[in-house]
Amino acid sequence: MDHTDPRSIGAQIRMRMPYLTPLETRVVEGMTGRTDLDRTTALRQVSGDAGVSDAMVVKIAKKLGFAGFRDFREALVIYRQTDVASLHSEISPDDSSADIIRKVFQTSMQALEETMSIIDVAAFDRAADLLHGAGQRDFYGVGGSAQIARDVAHKFLRIGLRASVQDDPHMMLMSASLLGPTDVAVAFSHSGTTSNVIEAARLARQQGARVIAVTNYSTSPLSELADIALCSTAQGSPLLGENAAARIAQLNIMDAIFVAVAQRDLDRSEAQLARTRNAVETKRRR
Question: In the chain, what are the domains?
Answer without folding.
Answer: 7-81 (1.10.10.10), 118-281 (3.40.50.10490)
